[in-house]
Design brief:
The protein is mainly α. Helix content is 49%, strand content 0%.
């Protein structure tokens, strides 16, 4: 007597898919926070810091036009 062959088809519900995406989002955001919290290696003593940061405040953007 042969055993019946069963093909297991998994039916996923939209709620299950949404929960899976939510879980992936939570795990991903926790991983990003973990990586941001790691201490960075200190820069070399003679290294430059790079370009100056840009101030995006509206008063700073319009001040160049007021100087003309």
């Amino acid at each position: 007597m042969a055993l019946p062959l069963q093909s297991s088809q998994r039916v996923t519900s939209p709620v299950g898919i949404a929960l899976a995406f939510l879980g992936m989002f939570v795990v991903g955001s926790l991983g990003v926070q973990l990586l941001r919290g790691l201490p960075r290696p200190s820069a070399s003593v003679g290294a430059t810091k790079g370009p100056e940061p840009v101030l995006a405040h509206p008063a700073a953007l319009w001040s160049a036009l007021g100087e003309r």
